[in-house]
Design brief:
411 residues, three-stranded antiparallel sheet, flat
Length: 411
């Protein structure tokens, strides 16, 4: 489980060569080498998943989205002949919402899958079946990729622990991210490598700036030509004044030496502005508004109706397509092969209202007053016991009535 380091992955793939698996790692296999070493960028930084996650914006985008999706209730429903639906309580429902495998909770399973989907563009899980029924979903480690046989049949190739496995289409639950119709989704980190590389370079520059006490190297002047030994002694002396912990320390110069500092604060060098833009640029790659990860644009507050509309836009344009992508893949790969033609998966979007009591109360009130939910169904939504009887009937308010019926008895 977890994300293997690029060096470990490379070592395992190279081990395949020594074991006679020379076909596992070819020089023309650009994707394999890129996944192992990362991608070079114009900033001079090599970008891979691990060092991208060291950027707070990348971590927050993946973390916030994957945690939100994994915390939503996922249920299976049976489509009845009259158009209504009822909960499906079969084994697959338990696997998806209670225990996907022996080691993970459903939140951990979907959190990991969504995290990989956002970062790598693909998430793979091995499907363990008992007959036609799914009995377990196991996250696949190492390097996994879809391949086509000469006859065009889709298979999956896995490289892990120095071994190479080939699995059939029916053995792999494959979540694909945004793409152009191919067998693989596109990786935001792969195609956003230039943005990530620039951000890593900016973070490194800021760190070095702090290490030097927020000062650039100054100019040490002398009216004499210094010998090599003297230059070495001066460098050792100046090292005593380098570092943020030595900021403000009194410097003593002799022998006619004069020090002229060259000050540069981050704003003068547009360091802060560059880092601010990098956060917003990274958010574009992951399709998440900066406000969601705690970054407010200049002049924007973290509160207000404008922020509320931004969050609603993210739910509709960002999260909903992601939820539909997962639902349809479950229907296609897990439900359909089991012969459950009238069963389908659906995330409960209302779960996103759980933390907003005002919005949830207004929503349930509207649903009950307009005869869409019964009072018992509303009670069940907030984890209250059903009352039965009239509480389970659909009702609607009748505040308005035709003038001709006023004063007449009901009947």
């Amino acid at each position: 489980m977890g994300i293997l380091s690029p060096i470990n992955r490379l070592a395992r793939r190279v081990a395949n060569l020594t074991e006679g698996g020379a076909k596992d790692l070819r020089l023309t296999e650009a994707s394999g080498w890129a996944e192992a070493f990362g991608r070079n960028t114009a900033s001079g930084k090599t970008v891979n998943l691990e060092n991208s996650l060291q950027l707070s914006a990348v971590w927050a985008c993946i973390n916030r989205t994957s945690q939100t999706v994994s915390s939503l209730p996922l249920k299976l429903y049976v489509k009845e002949k009259d158009g209504s639906r009822s909960p499906y309580d079969g084994r697959l429902s338990s696997i998806l919402s209670k225990t996907p495998n022996q080691d993970q909770t459903p939140l951990e399973f979907w959190e990991g899958n969504v995290g990989l989907l956002l970062s790598k563009g693909n998430a793979y899980s091995e499907i363990v079946r008992t007959g036609r029924e799914v009995s377990e979903l196991l996250p696949m480690e190492g390097i996994v990729r879809p391949v086509r046989t000469e006859g065009g049949v889709l298979q999956f190739e896995q490289h892990v622990s120095g071994k190479r496995r080939i699995l059939s289409r029916d053995q792999v639950f494959h979540l694909k991210g945004f793409g152009f119709g191919g067998d693989e989704g596109l990786s935001a980190i792969r195609y956003g490598a230039q943005t990530m590389g620039a951000s890593i370079a900016a973070e490194d520059s800021a760190a070095r700036l702090f290490a030097n006490g927020m000062q650039m190297s100054g100019i040490l002047q002398s009216d004499q030509i210094l010998k090599a030994e003297q230059r070495k002694q001066i460098s050792e002396m100046m090292a005593q004044y380098t570092g943020s912990d030595k900021a403000g320390k009194l410097m003593v110069l002799e022998a006619g030496l004069k020090y002229q500092s060259v000050t540069m604060n981050p704003e003068d060098a547009q360091m802060l502005e560059t880092r601010r833009f990098n956060v917003e640029d990274i958010c574009r790659w992951f399709g998440i508004p900066p406000i969601v990860i705690g970054h407010a644009a200049e002049g924007q507050t973290m509160w207000g109706t404008g922020v509320e509309q931004i969050l609603l836009s993210w739910l509709n344009l960002g999260l909903n397509p992601l939820l539909k992508r997962i639902e349809q893949r479950i229907n296609k790969q897990l439900i359909a092969p089991s012969g459950l033609t009238n069963v389908y998966a659906e995330f409960n979007r209302e779960g996103m209202l759980q933390m907003d009591s005002t919005a949830k109360a207004a929503f349930l009130s509207q649903m009950v007053n307009n005869g869409i939910y019964s009072r018992d169904e509303a009670r069940e939504t907030v984890n209250r016991q059903r009352r039965g009887g009239a509480a389970d009937e659909l009702m609607a308010q009748t505040a308005m009535a035709p003038l001709g019926s006023l004063g007449q008895p009901e009947g």
